[in-house]
From TrEMBL:
The name this protein goes by in its record: Sortase family protein
NCBIfam families in alphabetical order: sortase_fam
Keywords: Hydrolase
Highest taxon of source: Bacteria
InterPro entries found in the cross-reference section: Sortase, Sortase_dom-sf, Sortase_E
Keyword Hydrolase: yes
Originating organism: Dethiobacter alkaliphilus AHT 1
Pfam family, one: Sortase
Amino acid sequence: MKRAINIFSVLLIFSGLALVATPIYRYAVGIYYQSAERAAMVGEAPEYEPVKSIDPVVLQEEMEVDPTKLPQFNGVLEIPNIDLDVVVVQGVSQEDLRRGVGFYPQSTHPEYGNVSIAGHRTGYAGWFLKIDRLEPGDEIILTLGPNRYHYSVRKQFITHNRDWDVIESNGNAELTLTTCLMTTNSRRLIVKADLVEVIEVQQETREIQ
């Protein structure tokens, strides 16, 4: 009997250690993948310096782009009010979201429609842990290819995890962030933001006109 109790006690200890170690491991994996994504971006997209501010309406008229497709670059999402600075990868599979936050395949070109991004609230660094703190008017910045897109938070709300309307484009230039609730995976926290400014950027090594 005493032997059985000792074995049970050891199992409880190992179970407790596993419960503690698992989130730490997943957090470390998230940080590792994010570091790798940033390192990869250094070679593909050097540091940029702002050149000029562009009215989104003018840019929409002048640029020859496919409005139904998101440019196939990894991006960088910054939200100053919650100290978020994270690489955005292409895709929202479990493997993709280990590497950072991810663009939904349904995302459209930023000047024309809805750019939708998913991220974990907990686990793998929990990049979207604090997005419930965002309020109307808070700034969100998405750097994608040669442009930096500035958004202003419009609202946040909760919806069912099968509500795909939130990531569809309705013709408005907007950003949508999605993540799970802390208490359930069946519902999603949604943050909507409107595009207010586009900054064209170029490599620092080029002369600014």
